[in-house]
Amino acid sequence: MYDTKLVTAAQHGDEAAFAALFDRNVDGVYDLCFALVGEEGEASRLTALVFVLAARHLVDISDASQVRPWLLAITRDRVLAEDEAGTLQSAWGADSGAEASGGGASRGDARGADASGGKPSGPEAEVEPLGTNELRRWVREAGATLALADQLVVELGTRYDLDPDQLIAAIGCRPDRLDSIVAQVEQEAEQVLGSLILARQGRKDCKRLAGLLAGWDGRPSVEVADVADRHAATCERCRRRRALVSPLELLAAAAAWPPPGDLRAQALEQAFAELPGSDSPPAVPAVAGVLAAAARPDATVAMAPMPPATPPTVPAAAPGGSDRPWGLIAAIGAAIVVLIVAVVLVLRSSPSSTKVASAPPSTTAALAPGTTTPATVAAAPVTIAPISTTTISSTLPAGVGSQLVLNTTSVDFGADATSAQIVLTDTGAGQAGWHAASPVPWLSVTPSSGFLQPAGEVQITFVINRAQAPNGSFAVTVAFVPSDAGGTSASLSVVGSDTEPTTTTQPATTTTTQSTEGPVISGVSASPTSIDAAPCPSDESVVLATVSDPGGVTSVLVDFRLPTGASGSAPMTQSGTTWSASIGLSPSAGTITYEVRATGADGRVATSPASTITVRACSI
Questions:
Q1: Which of 307, 377, 560, 604 makes a 20 to 30 Å CA pair with 19?
Q2: Does residue 404 sit in helix, strand or coil?
Q3: Strand order of the sheet with strand 419-426?
């Protein structure tokens, strides 16, 4: 009810009431802006803009008690719109000495974060674990590696204690899509941030991981998360360690970024100019005092009673020449009461407050002789006409009436295609925010979110990971959902098939969809490329390779020859299209030669060019 009173007063141009709304909500808005851009000046600019837009559209708010998620929705709209337009200045991913205001780039779907948890970059930072509070802040800054729309969902879902209806309004999605959107984004965030935490905290305890991340300065990035994730797939110790942490709990518990001290004056000066003009006569000091008191959280606003229909009789002077003018005092008091009540009633019935339900007049109370102030009774509660909170989303023109349309209703990948393109168009009247989600892990959608200008279009790419796609035929539905609650979504079917595994009973024709050249091997590398000879304390070298074959891969081996002339093979473990295995522990110095050998489902074999690892003589 307190926010409702403030909004009602601010809708009539009361600057004190709007200032109180600013004070109650600026910390949350600024903290969200800073999390998204990572720079004080840019976060301050965005925060001030949010409150200017809120003041401009204050008369349009549907439910004044929900002003907080409404402000967060405005913040979301502005940040995504500026990112789409390429005007959002982000400090995340910039060099540590760079100023974000000096020409930052638009933030795309995969972004690096310039965050070292307060530790210096360099070799010392690589193995220095962070304390709990430092790690919380580092993990929150690492959230900038997520797609911007996904980071917004994580921030709004974990740090603002919003109920489901408020979260729907804040992130701008359909009610029936909330659970699936939040679940998918949180799963992605847990995977990426969990891998980054492993990289940041686990290198000291795992020499293989330290070797893979040699030279890393501690700044979160998608590339580092991928390296740590692939390593955890082959290292039981690191896999268990990653499972012990909850990145989203750390992010939720991180301290907020406080707004700078000069933000209030700058933002309010701009916002006051956008407040709606009052339709009531100029307020007398008594009314101004009542409205100013409403801006205090602990204030109880009382309304003066209506005066009696017949003015009180002015009693004669007391015997003995008493100079106490009881009648005059009573008459003045009654006049003040009439003036206050008249102004209040005009305010309550003005055209711009048609959403406010009328309240019955207060009971009549006469001024007793000898009283110097009018009696008061509690004011009737002021209520806002109730509507569904799903319409609280920002009332800005952006996204209103968006109509998402696809240039096709289905995409057929057949038996061997791995990518396809479609076109998404907005045929509505306003700028539309949108997002898409793949219902299966082996189908990716790029980009997965963005904004469209009126009649604008964007090319969407679908990519299928054939190694993870199900055998036989498949059909999934991908929906493109607008951010505004009144918009129209679009969807299509993704269909295709994958060759069943070859068995001895299948005819030879089942291999017609296989590659004519066998598996394709790329990205062969080893880390570290120099190890100590056994029996001294030595490390193993992890060999990585990317292997693909439309028909599937049955096995991948790394063949190696030690400096002694002995040879061997080690099976490689798959994670997506990446395969890895460990070799090493040579008894003598020299060179280890290795090759990656892959066998396709049709029996064709491909071998990579030979590579080498240097084995140093042990100095211990």
A1: 377
A2: strand
A3: 404-406, 419-426, 457-464, 443-446
User: Could you give the CA distance from residue 221 to residue 493 in angstroms, rounded to a whole number?
Assistant: 33
Cα dihedral: 482, 486, 488, 493 (round 10): 60
- What residue ranges in 485-602 does DSSP mark as E strands? 490-498, 520-527, 530-532, 540-548, 553-561, 567-571, 573-575, 578-584, 590-600
**Global pTM value:** 0.47
Give φ, ψ of 298 to 5 degrees. Answer: -95, 10
| For the ranges 130-139, 333-342, 472-481, the one whose mean pLDDT is highest | 130-139
The answer to whether residue 550 is domain-embedded is yes
Shared domain for 477 and 552, answered yes or no, is no
Per-residue pLDDT reduced to its tens digit, 122-135: 444 444 788 899 99
- The answer to whether position 135 is within a domain reads yes
Closest CA to 12 of 270, 342, 291: 291
Same domain? 470 vs 594: no
Q: Which value, to the nearest 10 degrees, does the dihedral of the CA atoms of residues 333, 337, 343, 348 take? A: 160
pLDDT, residue 154, reads 95
Tell which residue, 344, 316, 399, has the closest CA to residue 74: 399
pLDDT for position 429: 66
Query: Cβ–Cβ contacts within 10 Å for residue 376, how many?
Result: 14
Phi, psi of 347 (to 5 degrees): -60, -45
Domain shared by 486 and 524, yes or no: no
pLDDT digits (tens, 9 = 90+) for 505-521: 444 333 333 344 678 88
The answer to whether 372 touches 333, Cβ cutoff 8 Å, is yes
**Residue-range definition of the domain harbouring residue 602:** 520-616
Residue among 446, 447, 441 nearest 465 (CA):
441
pLDDT 10s digits, 283-304: 323 223 323 333 333 333 232 3
> Beta 611-616 vs 530-532: how paired, if at all?
parallel
- CA pair distance 182, 178, nearest whole angstrom: 6
Q: What is the mean pLDDT of residues 400-416?
A: 81
Domains of the chain: total = 4
Which residues are bridge partners to 419 per DSSP?
463
Query: pLDDT class for 392, splitting at 50, 70, 90?
Result: very low
